[in-house]
Amino acid sequence: MPKIIKHNSYLRRERERERERVNGISLFSNVGIDEIFLKRNNINIVGANELCKDRADFYRHVYPKCNMVCGDITNKTIFNKLIEIYKNNQCEFLLATPPCQGMSIAGKMNFNDERNSLITYVVNFIKKVKPKNILIENVPNILKFPINVDGKSIKIIDYIRQNLLPLGYKINASVLDAADFLTPQHRKRAIILLSKNQWNFPKPHKLIVVRDAIGHLPSIESNQISPIKWHYAKKHNLNHVLWMKNTPTGKSALNNTIFYPINKNGQKIKGFATTYKRIEWKKPAPTITMCNGAISSQNNVHPGNLKDDGTYSDARALSILEIMLLCGIPENWNIPKWASDNLIRKVIGECFPPKFCECLIKEMPR
Fold this sequence. Notes:
With 366 residues, this protein is α/β, with parallel strands linked by helices. It is built from ten helices and nine strands. It has helices at residues 2-20, 53-62, 76-88, 119-129, 156-164, 210-214, 238-245, 320-326, 341-349, 354-361, and strands spanning 22-27, 43-50, 67-70, 93-96, 133-138, 146-149, 152-155, 170-177, 188-195.
């Protein structure tokens, strides 16, 4: 008898979980980093869309049961295929992370960049299928950047409100920092929550600093390989290594009095204080960009530790494992064997951190 009761109790819990489970679609999916923890929160992404074939194949490897539609969402056939998947699977959730390069302060800030208008396809998708809950993530500028619609300029957020408020959606929009949501990295993103019910933002969590995230990993130098998967160092220019060996934690080699960056003519290089720079142990990491493998790019060098000879260890860019952990990606992330280091670094540099996404999803009305 106790066994039967236990069995019935288990079945009851499973039925309750099944009722709570929500099917959804992911647009502009990259390789699905933001989706890593959705399943444990009863969100089942049944369909996805990505323009680039290598990223779509990466996504298929990570999520083999999901129907990945590779192609341009502005193509009517692709768009209608995604609508069909949504309807056939009785979806109620939409996750959309359209490309942001045209609006990013790290880019050209081009008002005429065609990618800025991809948000109109998200809005049209919503109008056709009317999801119960929608999460849109982008760079902060999406909340003030205009697009051209039918020859008229309108702010993207106003366009969203103009089209979706009449459908009964409540819209909650703000700029949040991933560092406040279980991610050891400062990464400010515009988050737009749309729901037929009120969807509130989560309360900030205690900060996780760089040492908490990667301090347990062994020290490695340029071109060295550790026994830990994905923890190996790129081979760097010998001058770069020399400059960084003599650069303290949290500082840029540009500030060194002796071993500072010079060009081929021997003249001191002038640059931003974020270049040739070590990150800090006691703070969340700065935003990890797509150029995260270059010492000369922004905030990419390991914090290092002071050695007995007065130099600093780990004169190198962060390893793939380190940037994974600083984005909140688990160590056992299922990276396909064929993926190049360059592709892996790029998709991580563009990611919507998964624990940040999870914190938002936990507040989603059901």
